[in-house]
Write a structure and sequence with these properties.
about 375 residues, alpha/beta, Rossmann fold, Dihydrodipicolinate Reductase, domain 2, nine-stranded mixed β-sheet, five-stranded parallel β-sheet, 14 strands, about 35% helix, Gfo/Idh/MocA_oxidoreduct, Gfo/Idh/MocA family protein, Gfo/Idh/MocA-like_OxRdtase_N, GFO_IDH_MocA-like_dom
Length: about 375
């Protein structure tokens, strides 16, 4: 099957940041065609957003409920196939549930749901539906992150002993939510974001990156959670000590009040044979460190890399690939998986390499465990899912 998958979008209308990112990611490799959407809870804004995107007026809907109702009435060869949900956290579960039960595949922004209970329910719904869900943990899409994962999976670093992962931002260094900043307003509002601020927004990325690259799972944690900016309702800073299922220990910090910082996600992992380091500010580089010989600098686009890194690389060596390409890798791998299934073929391991429902549940468990630990007098708590 070589045709494009028919894509619909919920959220992401005028004034929304992440909707445009999703649409660019979907278009880069030509696997999707945007055919419909409910782009805002405001019906007129949804209509205007759809017109700007050049959609047929009868495929721009006033609500996500209307989208599912009308799309299911269309002939199968016209009906939307994949639903991309790019709303605030409190509007993830219900449309995702309706999409899966309605027979549509889902691409969903992280964190997956508003609560861990919703995440558990969505996992059951996905398993019953026979459809697939992709969770957009963008940083797993970088070629050199995938190379790091393969090096560890192949045992090149030996048994993993120590993990350091960090995500510093500075954009909420002041009370931006009081100045009308739309992104700040919902991300710091418990009614829309959930029980966590920084830990839900970016801490989940750091947590996911640590588990994705190492192939390990967190079993215990000890969190120090802070709300630094006066008047803010949710956490904007935190540090977490981690214990993994192989006995390794780790340190995670995520903050949105680090003045002057942008989005320099960074991870360092050390095993019994060597270590590695990757950071988004130099995303084309993976540094591998050895105790008995010089460090190696691995670069995106080079012929010596694994099939997973090559599969997710578009340009020759020396040409930077960044955030949009990493985001697009998730969309492409998801599309390749769906197309293989539609053709009654087995998807390749490379195309199956995208975050899904399991990562979504663990991400929500991270949020709830971290906040519970931060509020508890206990030093360590078990990581419960």
């Amino acid at each position: 099957m070589n045709r494009k998958l028919r894509l619909g979008m919920i959220g992401g209308g005028q004034g929304a940041f992440i909707g445009a990112v999703h649409r660019i990611a979907a278009q880069i490799d030509g696997h999707y065609e945007l055919v419909c959407g409910a782009f805002s809870s405001d019906a007129e804004r949804s209509r205007l957003s759809g017109m700007e995107l050049g959609l047929a007026e009868n495929r721009v809907y006033r609500s996500y409920q209307e989208l599912f109702e009308k799309e299911q009435q269309l002939p199968e060869n016209q009906r939307v196939e994949v639903i991309s949900i790019v709303t605030p956290n409190h509007l993830h579960f219900e449309p995702a549930k309706l999409a899966l039960r309605g027979g549509f595949h889902v691409i969903l922004d992280k964190p997956m749901t508003f609560s861990l209970d919703e995440a558990r329910q969505l996992k059951e719904i996905e398993e019953q539906s026979g459809k697939k869900l992709c969770l957009t943990h963008t940083y797993t899409g970088y070629p050199m992150v995938k190379e790091a994962k393969q090096l560890i999976a192949e045992g090149k670093l030996g048994n993993i002993r120590k993990v350091y992962v960090e995500y510093p931002q500075g954009w909420l260094n002041k009370l931006e939510e009081a100045s009308g900043n739309k992104q700040a307003s919902w991300r710091t509002n418990p009614a829309e974001s959930g029980i966590a601020g920084a830990m839900g927004d970016i801490g989940t990325h750091a947590f996911n990156l640590a588990e994705y690259i190492t192939g390990l799972q967190v079993t215990k944690l000890n969190a120090d959670i802070n709300t630094v900016v006066e008047g803010r309702l949710l956490d904007d800073d935190g540090s977490v000590l981690l214990k993994f299922d192989n006995g390794a220990s780790g340190v995670l910090f995520a903050t949105q009040i680090a003045a002057g910082e942008e989005n320099n996600v960074r991870i360092r992992i050390y095993g019994e044979k060597g270590g590695l380091e990757w950071q988004q500010n130099d995303a084309n580089t993976l540094t591998v460190k050895w105790p008995d010989r010089p460090s190696e600098i691995l670069r995106t686009g080079s012929g010596y890399l694994s099939s997973f890194a090559k599969h997710n690389t578009r340009t020759p060596a020396g040409h930077p690939e960044g955030y949009l390409e990493a985001f697009a890798n998730l969309y492409r791998n998801f599309a390749l998986t769906i197309k293989a299934l539609l053709n009654n073929e087995k998807p390749t391991d490379e195309s199956l390499d995208f975050p899904g429902i399991t990562e979504g549940v663990r991400g929500m468990a991270f949020i709830e465990n971290v906040i519970a630990s931060g509020q508890s007098d206990k030093k360590w708590i078990d990581f419960t899912v």
